[in-house]
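Researcher: Please generate the 3D structure of the following complex. Treat every line as part of one assembly.
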Amino acid sequence: MMYVIAGFAIWVLGWLVNLYLANSKWSDYRAMNLAIPLIFGLTVLLVWECFVMGFEVNPVFLPRPSDIVLRMAIEMPRLWADFVQTIIKGAFTGYILGGLAAFGIAVLADRSEFLTSGVLPVGSFMAALPIVGIAPIFVKWFGSNWESKAAVVAVMVFFPILVNVVAGMRDTTSMQRDLMRTYGAGYWPTLLKLRLPAAMPFIFNGLKVATTLSLIGAIVAEFFGSPTVGMGFRISTSFGQLALDMVWAEIVIAAIAGTAFYGIVTLLEKGVTFWHPSQR
Amino acid sequence: MTQEPTIDAKGLHLTFETNDGPVHALQDVNLEINKGDFVSFIGPSGCGKTTFLRCIAGLETPSSGHISVNGLTPDEARRARAYGYVFQAAGLYPWRTIGGNIRLPLEIMGFSKFEMSERVERVLELVDLTGFDKKFPWQLSGGMQQRASIARALAFDADILLMDEPFGALDEIVRDHLNEQLLQLWARTEKTIGFVTHSIPEAVYLSTKIVVMSPRPGRITDVIDSSLPKQRPLDIRDSPEFISIAQRVRDGLRAGHAHV
Amino acid sequence: MKSILPVFTIIAAVLFIWALAVVPMNMHLTADQAQRSGAIVTPDTPIARKETNGFVLALKNPHLIPLTYVGKRPNLPSPHQVAVEMFDTIFGKKITSKRSLVYHGWITLAPTLLGFAIGTLLGVLLAVGIVFSRVMDKSVMPWAIVSQTIPILALAPMIIVVLGAAGIHGVLPKSVIAAYLSFFPVVVGMVKGLRGPDHMQLDLLRTYSTNNAQSFWKLRLPSSTPFLFASFKIGISASLIGTIVAELPTGAKAGFGARMLVGDQYGQPILSWAALFAAALTAAALVGIISFVERGTLRKMGMKPA
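Model: Done. Output below.
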């Protein structure tokens, strides 16, 4: 009972603190923009802990945050091995492969207006499909180790990146292209000096979307066959053993990995597209 | 001393096929522009002045007729980098500094690093933007961006400069200042300039030759050789000679309209 | 629609490459089967064949090439096999039969639509909250953005089992996942849309002394419509994918996801491919319907798509 009351109290307290901070005169400072959501997150965690204790929720449904943290500390070596297998070998490799392939095809298709006007609708369509459904098929073709996961990821990220690169290269004004013509610039100088730099905001948009897709692809693909290591594998087997805290531990790792990956790409984006109005 | 005209157009026709039927952008245009001329093209929308400039630049292909630039076809001249083009908007690449933007044509044309930095400095000085080479376009005002765009067109020493309403988007005070600077630049560099404008005072102030055009179909109504001296302070615009030339331009424009 | 011809060309090219790839992909299996039925195969031992790649094997056994297109358990079903299977299970079976793709389609579609509706409604409400409350904006919005980078989809099967253990079966658990997946794109898109009107328009309304509610209904909501539709399209595809993933490895017996898995587990790859394509067509149809409604609505409002 005490815990339930404590939980409500913390919830109200957290809300009030944030209410005060958000409407205060410091509310636009950088530090405050970090502090407020963090306070919100912390409040959620504390309330979660209290409610699970207070309402005596079965840990099979919902473990306590403290249990999860404990499990993470104990199982760090295994979590690390899973991370390397799924994220580094599976997701990251697939991301690079799919991205390079998409880029290459986009540049090839770009030489023909006919092709690009076909590629865009088809690519957008494919990007909306449940491509993760090919995972069982790829496991059958490429075996159950990380290669099949990388293949699934590569196909999943291929279409969004392709569509964005193609759209980005088209996004130059006729005036900019005419300028290049007045310099007698051929196809390659125009591509390298105008269309690729102009396409960067679009390309990064695609790359950011692809980071999340690559993680999902790698983890879900492991549900269909994996050596005894890997985040998806760990999630499904821990789940089968009702070790929910391990499941959540993997999810936390996945969340951190996902946010970090996205964050790195966003940093790169800031560096490359510093000139774009959205970044200034 | 009969010299080949730098730009020579004979019987030029250009028809665009649009959804609403053919548009006669240019009809039977004949014009000679000599070396060192400053020629303005003036007329209402649709009279073909920009289209004609683009034909000279090799950016449009005429349906019939003949046009030569420095004795070559416009396309050959374009590939030989015979002219610099200034558009209505500065069109600077936002991911390059001002210096980087000026270097753009130089990189494409294969100048050496040393030559490039020397040229950038020189043209920035010509347009009075010294010291701005490391700034980005969005850090500059509209007038300054347009000056940078002119500098870019001058960087590779083409003898022809083609300008399509370059000062149209700027306010009048800045415009007057830039007009003066452009004349000084022309005096220093002795280029042949083709200049499209909507503004009668601008056309009369800047040019040695004014080409009045009218629409539907696009054609030349009048070619006026200016009697104003080459050295022109801004207040020449109040002189009787200036006013009479402006009047002639106005008459040419009205005559063109009456054709409709 | 001038892109129809290029689109068809690309699709035709893809189909062509697919049809060609069938041969090397299925050659080994076909060779084994053919040998068992007494045909002559070069090289004639499975061990020797293992070393040769599919292309070479095909070149050495041209008489087996047609057989690669009609195998019962191919590595890569041919386009026509998939098409026939789809036709058969969509039109050739009773809608209530457990073999019918229409039946499975409905099992997947119901939670998708329900989840999408819930997720969208909640998303719009949260977006309104974020736009009008500074506290919500600063505390919740960052999490809304971050949550899109977390692969929650990987949890989908778990959520199904947990809710199943709590006695919640059927449409609801899958709807929860679908709702979650469409929720955040809708929030982010709506916030962008509601904040969209430029200062000049907002100031104009202030000169008319409109209050917040009136400016919401008369300006912010209408001007955010293009963004809303863009989010809908993302949301509905995410919902569909979420439902399918939720159906995957949890012993689910029905739905597109279950079908894809069943085909894989029982050695009937053509079944899997047919289900995959049916899911793809469903996704296309859903996005198409939204686009259609979007065009009509925006035309009536005199706006252009985002």
